[in-house]
Amino acid sequence: VTENARPTFRDFAQAIFSDSPHACGKDKICPRDGLPGCSLVDFLPGEHIGECTDFLSWTWDYEVELVQDALRTWATTSKVDPKDRVIWMCFACNNQWRILFGQQVDSGDLESMFRENLQRIGNMLAVLDKWQTPRYLSRIWTIYEQHVAIQLKVPVSMLLPHAEGQSLLECIETGASGIYKVCNTLLAFDSKSAKATFEEDERVVKAMIEETIGFEMLDRQITTFLVSWVKQVLGVHMQSLMSKVQKATRSDFYFFEARHYEQV
pTM of this prediction? Predict the structure, then answer.
């Protein structure tokens, strides 16, 4: 579909929402507005869609493999059966033929659709590309999505690709200096400097922030959430380590008992 060996979602969009032979849904009538050009959800066979259980917060600059890796890692560590989950993803669920070609959808509409869908679904999965200065926190839409999730009290699970998750734990295992490093690099973001692909989106979203919570309070709000997430990661990891230590100690005890019994 694309010439890039590791395509981003933008690469895919250029291939499937275009005049290329790989275009998806271009000529199919949208069931919502009755015009040619439908969303991927309306284009795909029915067995691949269903009632959504999770809202995905991410950026189009991510490689497709990165998002797949993060979701697989989350499913494995959370002991979730992927067959039981249906993810709402703007790339597939919004009608990109309208959005990308400037038809009928503006930034205000996107915000309303986002808020309504997040509230209806009631659960967010946020994909970070890395824990050291993540791209996720340099994009105004994803920062705003975090704010709305906190505002609506929607549970948020932070996802990392497997290698990045391991790197985070390795850094934490170095002790206090590692934990400080995680917090300092993860929290080095500034919502006021965040960008959007389209200038109009950036202007509208930042205007909504300025008219409501303000950038300083928004940064504090998200910082508090991210610190809580790091504490949660630390707690789960320590619990896992203690469980391993406990099993190893119990094993050594049984070995000692057996040797003692043989000697007697």
Answer: 0.87
